[in-house]
Specification:
Blueprint: H1 3-8, H2 16-32, H3 45-52, H4 54-76, H5 82-101, H6 106-116, H7 121-136
Helix pairs in contact: 2-5, 4-5
């Protein structure tokens, strides 16, 4: 992606550190809601969801992903763009909760995305298949 493409897509490299910092701060807040960190399910939605476990978290991600698709379909047919942004924010938020549940964080996703920068999607997918075969012992 060229710098002009980044800017036109709302990804101004001059603002990215602050924008990424928002994700890091949100992930840090989610960490404080983990049961192991004293998160109170009676006082916090995040703590409540984390206390319910993986199935509840993953179900919520599925619901949010569906809502993103529905909002995007509406946008494709003349609807407003803000619902896409709102639903995507919900999806990202719940993905951050899942990462925390599994002992991961946005930095893990950032590292994977950085590894993929400049690599074609076709090449990246082929490499994943090779790695999967190697891990399975084929």
């Amino acid at each position: 992606m060229t710098q002009s493409t980044r800017v036109s897509a709302g990804l101004d490299p001059n603002n990215s550190p602050e924008e990424l910092n928002t994700l890091i701060r949100l992930a840090a807040m989610i960490q404080t809601r983990l049961p192991s960190n004293g998160g109170d399910p009676e006082a916090s939605y995040v703590a409540r969801l984390l206390s319910k476990g993986a199935d509840s978290i993953l179900k919520k991600i599925g619901e949010e992903a569906t809502e993103v698709v529905m909002a995007a379909k509406d946008l494709s047919h003349g609807g407003a763009s803000q619902p896409v942004v709102n639903e995507m924010a919900d999806l990202w938020f719940h993905c951050l909760i899942a990462l925390a549940h599994y002992g991961l964080g946005p930095q893990d996703v950032f590292a994977e995305l950085e590894r993929r920068v400049g690599m074609s999607g076709i090449e990246e997918k082929a490499l994943r298949k090779v790695r999967a075969r190697e891990l399975s012992g084929e």
